[in-house]
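Q: Hi! First time doing this. I have a protein sequence and I read that you can turn it into a structure. Is that right? Here it is:
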Amino acid sequence: MFQSSKKIALLAVAGAALLSASGGALAQGQGKKIGLAVANLQAEFFNMIKQSVEAYGKEKGYTVITVDAKGDATTQVNQIQDLIAQKIDALIYIPAGATAAAVPVKAARAAHIPVVNVDRNADGAPGDTFIRGESIKATTELGEWICKQTGGKGEIAIIHGQKGTSPEVDRYKGFMAGLSKCPAMKVVAQQWSERWAADEGNKFAQDMLQRDPQISVIFGQADGLALGASQAVKLAKPDHKVWVVGYDGDVGGLKAVQSGGLDATVTQPTFTMGRLAVDAVTDLLAGKKVPFDQPKDGVLTTKENVEGFLKQHP
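A: Yes, that's right. Below is the predicted 3D structure, encoded as structure tokens:
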């Protein structure tokens, strides 16, 4: 009887501790609003960030108000001005493009609202912290992998993301660094997208393959672009192997690597980045210091290791 009472008492203490911890987590964001300004929810990567921020924000007690710029910088400026008018306590910001990217940050600062940038920063007006994938290191590894797979020879096409955005610039820089070890490989075609989307990747790749049928490598700077390019390769029916690689590790991209539609991608810790953004908001609102730059490594993903990412995406 004594042992039974003791166990019940211990369980009650444990339960109280759990409730206290849960209540503490909720108290962090209780009554506070986070504005989440997303560049374009048509992109699976940004949708995954949204899911992570909304789920983890709710867990912490925040109200998360999400707006989608659909890739338009002017729309995003207006949306963020509206969020500020709604008296948000913090802004998590993924710029819709390089143009006017600094305007929302300056507006939030004028209203004394902390800004957490994710994936992209604003030139001239960076956020209080920048949570991003370490694109240069990962794409260097991707470029080296392509060199090895192709024997160091071939013609390359690159389908860029939105021109001037930090991931577009860094992914190009890293990929070219990786290719530098294979001087016989030449970039023969390049095109910049507006939305990082599959339909753009498909159209650009079709045009590239028609102009230069000898292209043997296509790098889409996002999985959506690469998936579109992969369809164009199937349509073109080339007489040689065309390697198609992407970036982000979206679920669609990972499934394509598994099935052979893509040869490789780089998997970013997308859900982790969303949670880190919410944690950064909590710290900034509490007056704590946060690192100015928070890079997170991506992982080269091929058929050899894709299963693990499909089972549990980081």
